């Protein structure tokens, strides 16, 4: 244990792509951009909640998009040789049997952001599938017709469900 590398798989996205596309496929550049933006938002929250002494380990956090068919997700990493030993002040150190802070923090941040990430990614996937279908609002998947949400419906859902990732995580740690 020293450096940190955590793979966050998002099987719901693979399942959704398979449902609307008919088979698994890699993410398109537009879909990767949405996933990158959401990964960066999660990374900002991780850095804001990372204990700081010199700031080197906080600055070492990175996120990478994994967009291969059947293995969509995010990879968070910290290359500092002591990153897996960091705990907040007042918490039992890892050397004394405590839990490394990255385990708690990454679990909470990714769990809190998951509904928003999946919603935004589904919108991007729907947009891609709509373009592939030539602009139609329905698409045939297997032997069944699937209705893709309209832009207005997605906008209503966004306004209704967007509370902000930082506020959600702050409430979770309060």
Structural description of this entry:
With 174 residues, this protein is α+β, with helices and mostly antiparallel strands. The protein has six helices and five strands; from the N terminus they run βαααββαββαα. A three-stranded antiparallel beta sheet has the order 1-3-2. It starts with a strand and ends with a helix.
Descriptive labels:
174 residues; alpha+beta; 3-stranded antiparallel β-sheet; two-stranded antiparallel sheet; 6 helices
Instruction: Please bin the fraction of helical residues.
Output: 40-55%
Q: Give the DSSP E fraction (strand runs of 2 or more residues).
A: 5-15%
In the sheet with the most strands, the strands line up as 1-3-2
According to DSSP, the number of beta strands is 5
Cα gyration radius (Å): 19 Å
Secondary structure topology:
Blueprint: E1 4-9, H1 11-21, H2 29-48, H3 56-59, E2 61-66, E3 73-78, H4 101-132, E4 138-141, E5 144-147, H5 151-161, H6 165-173
Antiparallel strand pairs: 1-3, 2-3, 4-5
């Amino acid at each position: 244990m020293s450096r940190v590398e955590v793979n966050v798989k998002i099987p719901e996205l693979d399942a959704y792509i398979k449902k609307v596309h008919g088979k698994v496929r890699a993410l398109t550049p537009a879909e990767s951009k949405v996933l990158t933006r959401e990964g960066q938002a999660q990374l900002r929250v991780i850095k804001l909640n990372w204990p700081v002494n010199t700031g080197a380990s906080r600055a070492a956090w990175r996120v990478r998009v994994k967009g291969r068919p059947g293995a969509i997700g995010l990879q968070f990493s910290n290359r500092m040789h002591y990153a897996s030993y960091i705990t907040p002040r007042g918490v039992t150190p890892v050397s004394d049997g405590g839990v490394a802070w990255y385990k708690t923090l990454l679990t909470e941040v990714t769990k809190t952001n998951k509904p928003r990430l999946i919603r935004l990614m589904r919108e991007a996937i729907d947009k891609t599938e709509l373009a592939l279908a030539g602009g139609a609002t329905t698409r045939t998947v297997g032997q069944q017709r699937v209705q893709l949400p309209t832009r207005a419906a997605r906008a209503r859902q966004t306004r209704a469900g967007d509370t902000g990732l930082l506020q959600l995580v702050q409430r979770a740690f309060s």
